[in-house]
Specification:
The strands form 6 sheets. The protein has a 7-stranded mixed sheet. The protein folds into 2 domains: 103 residues, CBS-domain, CATH 3.10.580; 226 residues, Spore Coat Polysaccharide Biosynthesis Protein SpsA, Chain A. Strand 1, helix 1 and strand 2 form a beta-alpha-beta unit. The model has no long low-confidence stretch (mean pLDDT 84). The longest helix is centred in the C-terminal third of the chain and has 13 residues. Helices cover 26% and strands 30% of the residues.
């Protein structure tokens, strides 16, 4: 691979100078920088389109460049591969917190084989809900037994964690619990299953009260309707190094506004304009890593969900953090449309 400088032009350059850089690196693009700071990205197609619209070769490259390019932080470069796959990108810049360019990742060059370590960490699956968003299916079949790509969603989850040596599995059950227990009684699963029966619906947080005394170390918790395509060992390592009592796995989602947006100031003056801006935000995937002390914040006998518990833990000065993945690494089947998307995605992989 060529040195990083072969792909960089200063934002003071004109289109003609930039085209020479693009021709020389044979990659079809150049990164436009302001000093070390990433300013934009320009492709040979961008330059051609600008010239065809009436632009001139001696004009600033800033006129043709995409000033809001996709990039990943150096600390989150693991997001690059799924991001490129999801958005069909061939290259993505890597920047630091100051948005200074530190590397370039080309599609297929940054993949590292995931070593599926034997983590030996228990897994808790919250499998007691009614699954009302999946009705009428869940009027007949409990959500944990809905088939996805040939096997139940619960087995899909167990298989993924089982590949990392999470062989002690606790299923917290309530709705149609006898149906679920009977199904797994007939199955030859290699993991050890423990069924914990809720006496009443306690929510994703309240149900964890049954784990008091069951575990004496770190454990995973997941809703029974999500699958993650990521490195569980890295997830656990980040959690432990952070000193968190609880780590919430979040998916980074990008929403493109399909219109030009205008910021208006005093006197209805236009302050700024952005064409089809992207809004990025983090979504709770329903997967967590938890330490035993976190269980102490659960109100006795109260129905409560895990995000609310995290709020209580933070008030008690327990450390709560996140592990962020790309939205393409998160599959959810909580609603009918999402269930079909999960099936399609699993078939492609």
């Amino acid at each position: 691979m060529k040195r990083l400088g072969a792909y960089i032009v200063d934002k003071s350059c004109n289109l003609e100078e930039t085209m020479k850089v693009i021709d020389a690196n044979s990659a079809g693009f150049a990164l436009v920088c302001d000093g070390r700071r990433l300013f934009g990205v320009v492709t040979d197609g961008d330059v051609r389109r600008y010239l065809l619209s009436g632009g001139a070769l001696k004009e600033s490259i800033c006129h043709a460049a995409n000033r809001e390019p996709r990039a990943v932080l150096e600390s989150e470069r693991y997001l690059a591969e799924p991001l490129m796959r999801g958005e069909q990108l061939t290259v993505i810049p890597v920047v630091n917190e100051k948005r200074e360019l530190v590397d370039i990742i080309f599609n297929g060059t940054d993949k590292k084989p995931v070593k599926k370590e034997n983590l030996g960490v228990p897994l808790v699956i919250m499998a007691g809900g009614r699954g009302t968003r999946l009705r009428p299916f869940t009027d007949i079949l409990p959500k944990p037994l809905i088939p996805v790509d040939g096997i139940t969603i619960t087995e899909q989850i167990m298989n993924r964690f089982g590949a990392y040596g999470c062989n002690d599995v606790y299923l917290i059950v309530n709705y149609m619990k006898d149906f679920i227990k009977a199904y797994f009684k007939e199955k030859n699963v290699r993991q050890t299953l423990h069924f914990i029966e809720e006496e009443r619906f306690l929510g994703t947080g309240g149900g964890l009260t049954y784990m008091k005394g069951q575990v004496d170390g770190t454990f995973f918790v997941t809703n029974c309707d999500v699958l993650l395509d990521c490195d569980y060992a890295d997830m656990l390592d980040v959690h432990r190094r952070s000193g968190n009592a609880v780590t919430m796995v979040c998916a980074r989602k990008n929403l493109v506004i399909p219109y030009g947006t205008i910021e208006i100031g005093e006197g209805r003056r236009i302050l700024s304009m952005k064409e089809k801006p992207t809004i990025a935000y983090n979504i709770n995937t329903g997967v967590y890593i938890i330490e035993p002390e976190f269980l102490e914040v659960i109100p006795e006998g109260e129905s409560i969900h895990l995000p609310e518990l995290i709020g209580l833990a933070m008030k008690r000065s327990q450390r709560a953090g996140t592990y962020v993945i790309d939205e393409s690494q998160w599959m959810d089947m909580g609603q009918m449309e999402e269930l079909e998307q999960m099936k399609d995605k699993l078939e492609r992989f």
